[in-house]
Amino acid sequence: MSISSYHLVKIPFSLAIKGVFSNLISAKTKGLIYSEYMTAMTLGSPILSSSRFLIRQVAIFAQWESEESLENYLKDDKFGRVLAKGWHVRLAFMRKWGTISGYKTPIQKVELENPSSSVVAVTIARMKPLSVPRFLHWGRPVEKLVRDHPGTLLSLASFKFPNTISTFSIWKTEKEMTNMVHGHGVIPKPQRHSKAMKERERKKFHFQFTTLRFKPLSEFGIWKGKENYIPNLKKNK
User: Fold this and answer.
1) pLDDT > 70? residue 166
2) Residue scoring higher pLDDT (48 or 90)
3) 19 domain residue, yes or no
4) 230 domain-assigned
5) With bands split at pLDDT 50, 70 and 90, how would you rate the model's confidence at 49?
6) For residue 236, what pLDDT is reported?
7) 232 within a domain of the structure (yes/no)
8) Range of 183's domain?
9) At 8, which CATH number?
10) Average pLDDT in the chain
11) I need a surface site. Which of 90, 101, 131, 147 has the fewest CB within 10 A?
């Protein structure tokens, strides 16, 4: 069964600059189906600020033919060993909205064991260049909503030159995530996300866009001095 993985790692500046212009994960990697190499960003941060683009902090989203393929990559590949020193979560596919080139929708889907289980969401967008200012106007309030939401365990945005923007979030429960999406909840301005979706439907920001939902399988490593982001989950180091 195919799996996905999401990685966070801090790397040397020179390697990070190289990664801005090329994907450090070779497309010829055995067992790799799809990957996105991105520079991490702080959700909701000002556009022109040092926290907007965290050049040495790298986010990798990848899809693999099997968990064994991922294990072999982390053990045997030079950049894979760099990723192995960071933090990552392994993911089983639940559902998808929209499409993004390269990602292959798994035939097998999983469900959460119970309503209190955590869930992971990944969004990826290929932006229309002329729509970026309008996207930022509508998107930054949503970033702040996700960043400050009491239902999130970890959240961030990421960017790949020239036009890929992505978000990653771990939610305590699927209900808390869907409530946010639809504008419900006892939080300030809860409809920020639903309003942005209506604007997207009125006039699309992107020429490709997908939202992916996953069941977390296992968590590895430490990110920003913390481990065990996801409760009641198999923990590994």
Assistant:
1) yes
2) 90
3) yes
4) no
5) low
6) 54
7) no
8) 3-220
9) 3.30.70.100
10) 88
11) 101
* Distance separating alpha carbons of residues 61 and 214, to the nearest angstrom: 12
Q: Which two tokens stand for residue 115?
A: 């309503």
- Lowest-pLDDT choice from 84-93, 101-110, 166-175, 188-197: 188-197
Contacts of residue 12, defined as CB under 8 A and 6 or more positions apart, other chains included, come to 56
Strands 3-10 and 32-41: unpaired
Whether 236 is covered by a domain: the verdict is no
The pLDDT of residue 47 is 66
Residues in the chain: 237
Alpha-carbon span 196 to 202, nearest angstrom: 10
